[in-house]
Amino acid sequence: MRRIWAILAYLAVVAGFSGGVWWFSLSSDLEALAERGEADLSVASDRLVGQLQRFRELAVLLSDHPDLEALLNGQGNARTASALLRETADKTGSLEILAVAPGGQVLATSEESWTPLASSPYLKRAIEDGALGAYHSVEPNSGLRVSTFASPIFSQSGPVAGAVVVRADIGAIEAEWRGDAMTVAFTDSNGVILSSNRSELLFRTRTLPLPATAGGRYGGAPLSPFPEVREIVISGFELWRLDAGRYVPRASIHLTRPLPVIGMQGEALVDIAPAVTLAGWQALVTATLGLVIGAFILSLMDRRQRLSAQLNAEAAANARLEQRVRERTAALSAANKALRREVDERIAAEQALKRAQGELIQAGKLSALGQMSAGISHELNQPLMAISSFAENGAAFLERGRPERAAENLGRISEMARRMGRIIRNLRAFARQEVQPVRPVDLAAVVEAVLLLSEGRIKREGVTLDWHPPASPVIVRGGEVRLQQVVMNLVSNALDAMEDRENKRLGVSIELADKVRLCVSDTGCGIASSDRIFDPFYSTKEVGRSEGMGLGLSISYGIVQSLGGAIRGANRPEGGAVFTVELEPAEMEAVA
Ligand code: ADP
What we know:
By secondary structure, the protein is of the alpha+beta class. It has ten helices and 20 strands.
């Protein structure tokens, strides 16, 4: 709605402005036209005045002619005078020249038949006032428009003796300027057009009815008013609109110019059609320009509106998007918080687990110690028995005076004692809770120590040991006690698995690649459920038989994992199981 009002207001402004342009253009053009019209009217008036004045002056000149003077003074000859007048009329193109007595009688004339003069006002003026008389009229018979000039002839004694009357045909004069572009007309003192370069305008007048004094001046000529003339005044110009045929402008500026010398008034009708057309065109161009600019502005406004609508839509979409992002971010941060809480809980659980695991390791070790204690006591008992018998033997040999045998026995005793010392040392080390951090350890030495501890059982159970210690130490990242615990567990499990077997073969090997790989293989019963062996408390062993708690492998798994290594167990195709421990190699120099 606002838009419609704005468009209407703009159209009104354009219309007003175009009207202004029309008005300004028309006024200035009218001024120029009027100026030119005035000049043209002045030229036309001068031409008419000049031509009529010739006849006026002819009358004056003839009034002094001696022939006429003589005639009017009663001495001259009418024939001679008439001849003079005829000749003069022929030469000057006058319609008629008359010599008139004060009473109005024609004494001489240029024509055979002459127009009776009656008591015409011009004659009266010449004879009674002794002044020059001028008169414009229409001949009743011929319908000719005639200008008459009467000049007094004075008698030798002084008073007026008569007059010379020269009559000129206005039509003949007018014929010369009939084709002029501008419409020009000349009115007499009654406002009747007696001369014009447009025949349509002749005998037209704006002052009907004529005063009575006009009498028969127009000889029955068809006087008529102007057809449908309408007058308006625009910026000081009198504009006429009339319908008087195709050669008279329909719309024109009416100009007047008084011509007192010949007793007439000049009038001109300057066609304003070109000015109106020009002003119309200028107004049209202005309006078109205004409309084009308006349309342009409208389209710009439309575009702006569309653009702002688009921007609004985009802003709304952005706001929606931002809202969604906010919601999503809130949801994510909530999820993040929950996750963090969970992580914290996990870390706490892991720490608890680690603690439990540490305790379990110790518990497992103690259980292993329990398991081993029978074997170890046997292990220690045997050298003790041997020592006692070697000691007894030594004493006997000393008594028998064979000190070299006694020394041999003593040497055996000390060897046995060393062996026992080694076993006990290893046991101590095994039972100790390791607190030291991860450090480089010789894996081969660890294996040696475990095999030493298990030597008694291996021999007792008739197990063939397949172990080739490497030529040089194999250093890995670990803890001596922890690795011993792992290897001991693997060896014990292998021996357990082979207990009921005929063929008992324990294989221990160390391979060195990008990692250090320790393999413990047996020819036992094989793993019953390979995906559960590392679970805590999973055991297939009868309770009480070897006091299996199902903790050994799970503890080993935890230890190897904490050292950055891996442990896995598998059945061998030829029977039995193989356990592989992979450990990170370490630098030799780092060994303390
Ligand atoms: P435990 O020895 O107290 O049973 P472990 O965790 O050491 O507990 O062993 C778990 C189980 O894994 C054993 O009960 C056994 O069934 C299986 N297992 C371990 N080592 C071997 C092996 N070398 N051969 C066959 N089975 C094995």
